[in-house]
Amino acid sequence: MDKLGSMTKEGASSSSTKRKSRRPKYSKFTQQELSACKPILTPGWVISIFVTIGIVFIPIGFASLFASERVVEIIDHYDKDCVPLRYTDDKLAFIQSSKTNKTCIRRLTVPKQMKSPVYIYYQLDHFYQNHRRYVKSRSDSQLRSKSDENKTSTCAPERNSPNGTIVPCGLIAWSLFNDTYKFSVKNKQLGVNKKDITWKSDQGNKFGSDVYPKNFQSGGLIGGAKLNSSIPLSEQEDLIVWMRTAALPTFRKLYGRIEVDLEANDVVIVTIENNYNTYSFGGNKKLVLSTASWIGGKNYLLGVAYLTVGGLCLFLAISFILLYLIKPRLYNKNNNWDKAVVLELCLLGIHPTCLGTEVHQEDIYLLARSIH
Questions:
Q1: How confident is the model at residue 362 (pLDDT cuts 50, 70, 90)?
Q2: Contacts from 92-98 at CB under 8 Å and sequence distance 24+?
Q3: Domains in the chain: boundaries
Q4: Are 149 and 142 in contact (CB under 8 A)?
């Protein structure tokens, strides 16, 4: 009877222990026993990866440099030379006066054959289109739809004129570049194609076909070019190009294309209307004629970057090969076995990493126990 009572008590205590147990239910996920890929970066793998990167990157770098070298580019820094001598010390008075003759003739010699299309860019230096107040001074909703014509809260200070709301409003549109270029070779006028110089996404999504310029550049202070009020904004590609603001103070924007070949040593006569005011803030204006390659214009940075990375990877691969040959490291999938092999070789006195050190048999025994 006593035995039965004691067994009953023990059973009750064990069942209460089971009920009070907080042990979670066993699963491979909670116990972190799921199968996983554990790659071992052996010397062979590391060397192979660096060699592969070097073999791939170096040819791309050379191809980029050769493509950039084939681009023919003419740059003319005309803003200072297009100022008359009597205004050399007061360029601001020249550009702000409506009575001065701003027509300038420039002669550019073609160094090598330039196959069509020849792209025409204007380049501005020290012009901070990325200034916060300048970038915010526009109304995207007004540019997209005629129904949002009066949404000009973000366009200060170019929101309204004495005649009403300005379309397009804001400082970006107000400061539209207004220098013009005409080209001729051997007394033959070269046409400039100004179609398809914008991003299609900008032209189709950001500028409405029902939005027309209104009261633009009608105030007392004229900032830049004027717009044709009979042409919708979606077709005024010079404006669309200008409204995509640049991230850096030195930038180029596409003006148009010359769609005929220019032969080597041809003299291109450029008639420039020097209207845009960069003198008040110490900026520079440049005219750029350039061909293009599969990587775009002349740019050595991409090729140099690929060559640098590829060369560095090959250098590291060669360094690791030499290191592996001079001072090899025994390895296996189980690093403990590596240590066991090293200790055995040290015990025999033939492993180079432990010459002159004393290794006991106990070390091998303890390591073998830890493995099993």
A1: low
A2: 92/277, 92/279, 92/280, 94/279, 95/274, 95/275, 95/276, 95/277, 95/279, 95/280, 96/277
A3: 39-70+298-324, 72-291, 335-372
A4: yes
Nearest to 166 by CA among 211, 213, 207: 213
Residue in 220, 218, 242, 225 with CA at minimum distance from that of residue 143: 242
- Residue that the structure tokens 């769609």 belong to: 259
pLDDT category at 361 given cuts 50, 70, 90 is low
pLDDT score, position 32: 80
* Residue 232, both tokens: 């919708």
Give the Cα separation of 352 and 355 in Å (integer): 6
Mean pLDDT in the chain?
85
Q: How far is CA 334 from CA 51, 200, 265, in A?
A: 27, 58, 71
Q: Count Cα neighbours of 188 within 13 Å in the Cβ-side half-sphere.
A: 8
Phi, psi of 260 (to 5 degrees): -135, 155
Q: Which residues contact 140 (CB under 8 A, 6 or more apart)?
A: 206
What's residue 42's pLDDT?
79
pLDDT (tens digit per residue) in 11-29: 555 555 556 777 778 888 8
Task: Report pLDDT digits (tens) over 147-176.
Answer: 998 898 999 888 888 888 999 999 999 999
83-86, long-range: CB within 8 Å, 24+ apart, which pairs?
A: 83/274
Separation of alpha carbons 316 and 309, rounded Å: 11
Amino acid at 18: K
Q: Is 121 left (phi over 0), alpha (psi -120 to 50) or beta?
A: beta
273: Cβ contacts below 8 Å, ≥ 6 apart: 102, 103, 104, 179, 180
CA atoms of 143 and 357, how far apart (whole Å):
81
Give the per-residue pLDDT at 18.
Answer: 53
Strands (E), the chain: 73-77, 103-109, 118-125, 160-161, 164-165, 180-185, 188-190, 251-258, 267-273, 284-290
**H-type helices in 182-300, by residue range?**
200-205, 237-243
